[in-house]
Amino acid sequence: MAETRAANRVLVLNSGSSSVKYQLLDMSDRSRLAVGLVERIGEQTSRLKHTCLTSGDTREHTGPIADHDAALKAVAEELSRDGLGLDSPELAAIGHRVVHGGMFFTEPTVIDDEVLSEVERLIPVAPLHNPANLTGIRTARALRPDLPQVAVFDTAFHTTMPESAARYAIDPKIADRHRIRRYGFHGTSHAYVSRETARLLGKDPSEVNVIVLHLGNGASASAVQGGRCVDTSMGLTPLEGLVMGTRSGDLDPAVIFHLARVGGMSMDEIDTLLNKRSGLFGLCGDNDMREIRRRIDEGDEEAALAFDIYIHRLRKYIGAYYAVLGKVDAVAFTAGVGENAAPVREAAIAGLETLGLAVDPERNAVRGGEPRLISPDSARVAVAVVPTDEELEIATQTYALVGKNN
């Protein structure tokens, strides 16, 4: 009699406007079986890079990939070559990253036509992300219509914010009519990192207050009280908050009026300026923190000022969220800059000793892929580096939901 293997694999898809990132995970031991990326979809120079982690083989293909349908079919073919195809009985579900879930989606959700319609209705508040997410979902559903497909929303973790934190101080009727409120983003990362920080401290998440600093090209901070988000730096869109790679972060709204009235700029030009030509890139022409630090070491004053503005905003949010939480057990750095840029961590914490925060220089200089403390043993508040794992978080939430429904 043939052995029946358990359905314990989850394929995680992150569909962008011209790319698809994917990972196949075995949830019995949380291991990765395959990872890959399809980029430049719709161009003649499309590229697919696929790695089978069970064999160590990596394959690359270049050439035109017309659309997301062709991209996912190519992904399925690569997985099949490794014996990991979408038709495998061991595949339990496909988990999709969806950037904006509004207030309608507060937790992972099995996708049906009604869910798709609501995600589509949210396109006006996420015009760059939700359309691409929808394309990936529709294509995956067409390939495996019998398989549970789950949406995991970047905004879901932040829906626990109280109204005092989520509301802007504008006419509520106008705000509600146009769905204007602070939603926050990077939610899967903030959820994962806050929980892993509690584990690092040997405590249950319900017992721990954490300030999470997700610092990548996009950057956000959150105040997490007992496992629940009570404030976050991004707002209606990912433009609000910290200084980022190419985004301005917090800005006097009247700057927009001034640029339109006095500068003669169109709304599209201002949008491009604030989202794509501001932040570190706008200040010094570089949005790679490694390059900025290299320039600082060579005495570049423009790079030094950009770094100082970045750190000043970051320290303001640490102080603000300390006040919001009242009691802080840990500050956790994560994502590309947060995990790898020791000078950023050192500068962000410097001078905050009266708040119980300090960084041990030797611990801070250590690089590694595991969660670790970089504060002295005597510090009242732990400072940690916790590598984020959004794909694992999506797979975990997807698998838990599918198991619950079954």
Walk me through the structure.
- With 406 residues, the chain is an alpha/beta fold.
- The protein is built from 15 helices and 14 strands.
- A hairpin with a 3-residue loop joins strand 9 and strand 10 (219-225).
- Helix 1 crosses helix 3 (130-143).
Topology overview:
Layout (H helix, E strand, L loop, with lengths): L8 E7 L4 E7 L4 E9 L7 E6 L4 E6 L5 H14 L9 E8 L10 E2 L2 H9 L8 H14 L5 E5 L9 H4 L5 H6 L9 H14 L8 E7 L3 E7 L2 E5 L21 H8 L5 H10 L2 H6 L4 H9 L3 H25 L4 E5 H6 L1 H8 L11 H5 L6 E2 L8 E4 L4 H16 L1
Parallel strand pairs: 1-6, 6-8, 9-12, 12-14
Antiparallel strand pairs: 1-2, 2-3, 3-4, 4-5, 7-8, 9-10, 10-11, 13-14
Helix pairs in contact: 1-3, 10-11, 11-13
The count of β-strands is 14
Measured between the Cα atoms of the first and last residue, the distance is: 25 Å
Contiguous uncertain segments of 5+ residues: none
Overall pLDDT: 93
User: What spatial order of strands do you see in the largest sheet?
Assistant: 5-4-3-2-1-6-8-7
Order of helices and strands: EEEEEHEEHHEHHHEEEHHHHHEHHHEEH
Task: Determine the number of helices (DSSP H or I, runs of at least 4 residues).
Answer: 15
Q: Which secondary-structure class do the elements indicate?
A: alpha/beta
Largest sheet report: 8 strands, mixed
Shape descriptor reads: globular
User: What is the helix content?
Assistant: 25-40%
Kindly estimate the percentage of residues that lie in beta strands according to DSSP: 15-25%
| Backbone CA Rg | 22 Å
